[in-house]
Every structure is written in structure tokens, then in C-alpha cells.
Amino acid sequence: MNNLVFSPAYQLATAIRSRQVSSVEVLEAHLHQIAKHNPTLNAIVTLDEERARQRAKEADEAISQGVIWGPLHGIPVTIKDFFETQGLRTTCSYKPLANYIPQNDATSVARLRSAGAIILGKTNLPYLAQDFQTDSPLFGRTNNPWDLDRTPGGSTGGGAVAVSAGLSPLELGGDGGGSIRIPAHFCGVFGLKPTEHRVSTAGLILGLPGGIKPWRHQAVVGPLARCVEDLRLCLSVIEGPDEQEWEVPPAPQETVAQLNLSSLRFAWSDNFGGVPVTAETQEILEKLAITLEEQGCWVEYANPPEFDFEAACEIYGEIAGAEIIAAEPTHRRRQWWLLSWLLSQRFNPEPMVRGFSRAGALSMKRYAEALTRRDVLIQRMEQFLSNWDAWICPVTPGAAFRHHKTLKVFGSPFGGSIEVDDTTVPYWSWGTSYTSVFNLTGNPVVTIPVGFTKTGLPIGVQLVGRRWQDMRLLSVAEAVSQLTGSIAQKPLGY
Fold it and tell me: CATH number of the domain that 170 lies in?
């Protein structure tokens, strides 16, 4: 194989099993790439070099004896630094966890190991995963390989950079409001937000271990990779029931025949009725719609009828805020109550922040009402998607923006704005208006790269499918990626 660090994981796995290349060779190629580029990118914050080398040797010895550990035998992978990893520092970019060494693996990490993967290291994220930029109070800022002056997105920013720059073929990430999809879009790679509860979140920490579990709803675990096939491979490894998290049902038995692109039906949209997209983003979306139509697909511009996107962002904020704040220590809950009062009295915050600000004083009745309103929106989204093989829409209003300083309140960003051409958009509305709605509804979403801006920055789109039809959605995304680029392009200079 010519370029080990930019080959998809499934190709590397096939080559290792057939002894065309050794696991040691694959690992050393990635370690060389890390040594060369990680100092400027700051994607990997904890490197498990010694144990990875030992495991790669063991993987090659097993192959020589005819033993294959699993579908990821001998493949190095990186892990977002909010998953517990046995014997390897896990911080969530939270100072009280700066030296936390877990005794056990998160469920998804354990399943990757069981499938033969080699844990290469942990990737950077913002404070408690609460931003769509990646600037850690412990490890500093992560830079986008397409332009070091720009953000890679967040909160799986380090992971997206690692995959994009050839530091890792596969990243285990998480998405509570766009945290897989935004970095994938900014860095020109593929990402999957699975259906809610399809993959266990056990061992994903967003605060001190052993306390109340935050994020009972809306947050999911999923992969970032260089192609759709790798997303499918990783999902098949990590999905399914878990004795530590009883909400996860058996994975649906989806039989997906090879899809004929010309038989597919696509809805598409470039506006959810509020935040505009850049002219370049709109042009790329329109071009994709026209290309699909030319291939014989049924393509129509459409949004779900009677679906209030502003209300969806607000409800998302209420539920996420209530579940996060409930898990906080008493002094932090008091801080949130103060912030809630301040925002309600003195400002007119954007929808998601408005919902989040109310969460500090949310009663059990109001929380239950928010979940009930969520049920209604889930039903409306499912009814709409039942008519389509996928709904294509933006990830964010534009490509990766320059590193952006924001007002931090109790460690999390509030306030500020970002430009969309000649328009100024509030910070959180820019970042999550097109993504958080699908955390609310729980739908699976695949992000694929589809083009570039005039300045060479990648642009991705979201392909949204019906709940629990993740494998079919991946097949649809794979068919589309045959037109737009089936393997992620590498940035110049890497």
C-alpha cells in the first residue's frame, strides 16, 4: 500500500489480514505522522505509544498463527478524551480530572479493543465538551489542518483533525449537538451521528465519575473516518445492548441491498427558516441537488411541514440544560440559577441559549412538558422522512471560521457572533441551528464532504434518515459519495 496514513481503515484491515502489510508498519507510519504534524495541530493530547507498539507486535504474531481478533485487527484508532480508557488518562478537558486514570474502558472503547483495534491515544476537546470550537483549558487550542488559523470545530475537534491529517484512520467521538458533524464538515472527513440509544454511552464522562449521569437524552456515540465504509464498520462493532445502559436495544436487523442511486428520493433544504447560509454553501448544496437529479434521482426542495425549528432549538436547550445541570455539584447549580435569572431579566438570548438558561430553574413538570413537546416534533420529523431516502441539509451556515474568542460563563461560551457573508449571527445559533434539531429528534445523520470554498476550505452536508435505519442511511450516503468523493481528500502539506 502506497500511503498507509491516508488509507481507509477497512483497506488497512484487509491488508493486515492478508499480510500485505503488518500492524507494526501501519502503527509506525501513524506515529511518524503524529511526530511530524501533531505539534502544530494539537489534535492528540495523550499518546499511548509504548502499549500501542506492544499490541501491534501481538497483532502480527496472532496473524502469523492464523488468529484474527476481529474486523479491526491491528488497526490504530484514537478516542475522544471524554471516554474512559483503562490505564490511560481521561480528562474531558476538566481540571479536576487532569490526572484521572480510569480502571475500566467505556463500553464502546472495550468493543473496539475486542474487535482488534489498538488504542493509539486520546484527542482534544473543549471544556466538558461544551463548545463547537476546540480550545482546552488543559491542553490548549487545536488547529484545522486546512488552515491553522481556523477552528476544526468541536467538540470532537481533535478527532476530526487526527483523521483529516492522517494521524489516525478512525476516531471514536460523541455528538450532543453537532459534535461529530461540525468537525467532520470543517475538516473534510466523514462522520456518523447514530440513532439515539443505538450505541451505549456508558463510560462517557462529562464531569466527575460516579455522580448523576448527565445527558439521558440527545447525546450519542459515533465514529469519524475517511469513508462511509469505515463508519459502517465501526458502527457494527460498537452498537447493541449493554448491561451498563439498559436503554440500548438489540441492533435492528437491517437488510440493505446495494442501492441503485437513480431510484433514490432526496429532499433538500438550505434554510430552516432562521439562520441563513453563505452564498458558497448554498451554491454547493444546489449543485449537489442538480447532480443527483441528473443521475435520475427524485429531488425536491422541502422542509418538514408544521415543524417549528426555533421551538426545536429551544426545547433542545431546555432538555440538555436540565440534564447537565442536574448532575452538577450544588455550587455549580447555584451558578446556573444565577445565570438563568440574569439572561431572563437583562437579555433576549437566542433560542438554544434561551432554553438552556431556563433549565437552571426548571421544575420536574416543565422538564416533562419539554420531553412531551419533543415527542411531537419526533413524530413530525418521522412523518416527513418517511417520504424520502434522505434529507440533505447544511451542517453549519459556512465553512470553518477563524479561531474565535467568546465570553465564557462558568467555563462555557456565551455571547458573541459570527458573520454569514454580510449578516451577523449569534454564536450558538451559527453553530447549532442546523445540527441540534437532530439530537432533539434522535435521527441518524451522516456528514459527508461534498465540495470546497473558493479559498480551499471543505464543505460537508448532512444526510438525515429515519430513526433506526442507520445502515440504510449509510448505504444512501455511500451512493452519494460516489459522486462527491468516496474517500476524504488530504489537506495540502500532509
Answer: 3.90.1300.10
